[in-house]
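Summary for the funding panel

The consortium committed to producing paired sequence-structure records for every protein in the target list. Below we show the first two records in order, beginning with the earlier of the two.
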Amino acid sequence: MGSVLDYIDCPNCGHEAYDDFYYKTGEEYINCNNCGYHKRTTIINREKSLAELTEEDWEVVELKNPYGAYRFKVTGDIGSACGSVESEEAFEAVKKAVAEMEDVEYFSISRLIGDEIILEVIYENKQDGESNTRI
């Protein structure tokens, strides 16, 4: 399966979002790590050929007004885990799950408030040996 990764202006906040388009299937994933906007266009019925697909064979899920985008990194991992949250309640559930993890190096939420992206660092294990209060 081949894909093209592009960077676009987020339809929600206007900041940079990434667009992962699978050119062999027409499926697409758009994510904004600034505000949490997410849109996913996927094939539901994979038993049909691409030429046989109708509108009913596609699923489009769009999170137009997200609560925010979270990011956390586990010590020793190369990358971070990122995701969108739909509501404050959903973020509290993510926050609780991350608090139960061991070796969390970094945890934050980024939100669109008014016309501005606000980044709140929830937890950061500093390199100098000091660390913030646990989540």
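The next record, for a separate protein in the list, is shown here:
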Amino acid sequence: MSAFRFSLLIGGAFFEFAGIILLAFPDLVPYGVRFSQWQRRHAHALLDQIRRVLGRPRNLTIQVGSAGAVVSAGRVSVMKSSSATATLHQKVEFLLARDQEAQREVNALQNQIEGIQTESSKRLAQTRQEIETRFAQELKSALEIHRPLRIWGAFALLLGLACVTYANFVN
């Protein structure tokens, strides 16, 4: 076996192993995320220069966050009663008026509860949509973090396969 063939086999095996690691386990590569970020910045800069040469606008990405506010209010309670010197007729009228007020308040409370139910179901659907969107964005971001490493892994695997294949033709 010649030294050239031996070096091609060893180099091919090394490149194949490196390519498999970069493709399958990019998290295990030391400084892999930093290299991916560096690679992405330079790739975007190169693509922006190519776009400028072709007369196309730059590719801009804008991320918008959400903001919220919480307001809490205190509670006030009032007690009504009839006067101690009221006649029986006045007390009955007071009780009838009080009963009508209680019925109006119960109806208002029922409407408020129904409103809360519909609002909470709308908020739940909106929150579910926001969570699904955020999860999709985070998943996409996690996959994009290691994309340059996976591309380099594919090139390394291809180079390793080419070296081993060429070594089989060398005497």
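Regarding this second record: Residues 3-59+88-169 form one domain. The two ends are 7 Å apart (CA to CA).
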